[in-house]
Design brief:
The chain is an alpha+beta fold. The protein contains three helices and 13 strands, in the order H-E-E-E-E-E-E-H-E-E-E-E-E-E-H-E. The chain starts with a helix and ends in a 15-residue tail after the last strand.
Length: 184
């Protein structure tokens, strides 16, 4: 059995889980509601405040999906009860970030500013303190969407290996290269 797949998911207080006959799972909680279409072979049971996910056989496909769906459902439960947060920081001279509602205005050293529209399911905030790098805080209940949007923002100017300039996750360590050494 899958080590991840067989561990039960504890339901937080105020979280309800329903499974439709078409194997669509709906998780409702204090922060919102998430839906996910599950593979028809993977079975989901809710009992005693826990979710147990099982597979029919030991085929490679079923083994792969077992752990995957357990992780996805666990993220859904965590999302509707606590939510997820990601923080990005802009490292570089003149790099700026500002937001007006769901529009993120980024100045990343290009000849023009980049206007990035954040999906309505996520909350965005920017913070610029004197002497600190500008920060972008993203918050939401859908972990997949949050990670995808954060990765897209990071891809606009990835950290480069010589000076470390670019958009990076908070706490991300960028390995720097030595660069050229002088001739004689």
């Amino acid at each position: 059995m899958s080590r991840i797949g067989r561990s039960p998911i504890k339901l937080a207080s105020g979280v309800t889980v329903t499974v439709s006959p078409a194997n669509e799972i709906t998780v409702k909680g204090p922060k919102g509601e998430l839906k996910k279409e599950m593979d028809r072979d993977i079975k989901l049971e809710v009992k005693d405040g826990e979710i147990i996910i099982s597979r029919p056989t030991d085929q490679i496909r079923h083994r792969a999906l077992h752990g995957l769906y357990r992780a996805l459902v666990a993220n859904m439960v965590t999302g509707v009860s606590e939510g997820f947060k990601k923080q990005l920081e802009l490292v570089g001279v003149g790099y700026k970030a500002a937001n007006q509602g769901q529009l993120l205005d980024l100045s990343l050293g290009y000849s023009h500013n980049i206007i990035f529209e954040i999906p309505s399911e996520l909350k965005v905030a920017t913070l610029t303190e004197k002497g600190q790098n500008p920060k972008i805080m993203l918050e939401g209940i859908d972990n997949q969407l949050l990670g995808q949007v954060a990765a897209k923002i990071r891809s606009l100017r990835k950290p480069e290996p010589y000076k470390g300039k670019g958009v990076r996750y908070a706490g991300e360590v960028v390995r720097k290269k030595a660069g050229k050494s002088a001739g004689k």
